[in-house]
Amino acid sequence: ETPHAGGAGRLPEWLSTHPDPGNRAEKAAERAAKVPNAAQLASGHDAYIAHVGGMTFGEDPRQGFFQGNAFLHPELRFRVDFPEGWQKANTAAAVVAVSPQKDAAVQLSGAGKLSPEEASRKFFAQQGVKAASFASGTVSGLPATASWFEAQTEQGAVRGLVSFVAQGGTTFMLVGYTGAQKLEAYAATFQKSFASFGPLTDPAALAVQPARVELVKVPRTMTAAEFNAEFPSTVPVETVAIVNGLGAGGKLEAGRTAKRIVGGTLPKK
């Protein structure tokens, strides 16, 4: 298992805040009994579709996207390389990469408006965390601190490297960690990844925009393929069919308002 600092043995927050699964079926039946006859209900399709035009479709690359091993963030204007071959994910809380053996991880997250020195002191104020060695300097010319550390967690002892870097008025935390006996095997990987952190300067990446929904009045009855040929999308035709609620062999009726997806292509590496 990938080591992490605490949290083991506790119910995940999302689980504790959801309704008791034991009574969900009963509650659903009660709600269904109160719904009027379906024939009396308006679908609200026209009112709904009017609000869809211009909406973002899929993930917003301006909030960060991967380009190979590199993670680029156009809004915050930084980039960083994660280890090659590691499994990567961009979540709301952090960007994480896990080793193929699932015995080490690198994580990038925000540390707010604290200076790198203040953020480092806060990190080492945590119970069970202690510095092995400390350095203050720069990463890609940005103010930064870096320290090897040891920590006692509910899953055992871990060791790693943590760095706090100031970029664009925000301090970011880069932390790499593994089991206490495996740090030597991953130390160079952590250092290489951290050293790659720097400003994002690629104009194409800085200008990237998300894909958006555009509404089109269907001129005549058309299949999804025919619609896509006349009103091209930047997503596969299969996705066009799905967003328009078309099953196999389904067609868009003349006069219907349909959805196409435009924009959102990422810059080439």
Query: What is the percent of helical residues?
Result: 10-25%
Structural Rg:
25 Å
Count, helices? 8
Average pLDDT figure: 83
Element order: H for helix, E for strand? HHHEEEEEEEHEEEEHEHEEHHEE
Largest sheet: 7 strands, antiparallel
Which characteristics define this entry?
7-stranded antiparallel sheet; 34% strand; 269 residues; 8 helices; alpha+beta; 4-stranded antiparallel sheet
Describe what you observe in this structure.
The chain is α+β, with helices and mostly antiparallel strands and 269 residues long. It is elongated and about 70 Å long. The chain has helices at residues 13-17, 24-33, 45-52, 116-124, 183-195, 203-206, 224-230, 237-243, and strands spanning 56-57, 65-67, 70-73, 78-81, 87-90, 95-98, 104-110, 129-139, 142-153, 156-167, 170-179, 198-199, 211-217, 222-223, 251-252, 257-262. A seven-stranded antiparallel beta sheet has the order 5-6-7-11-10-9-8. The chain has a four-stranded antiparallel beta sheet with strand order 2-3-4-12. The protein has a three-stranded antiparallel beta sheet with strand order 1-13-16, with helices on one face. A hairpin with a 2-residue loop joins strand 9 and strand 10 (156-167).
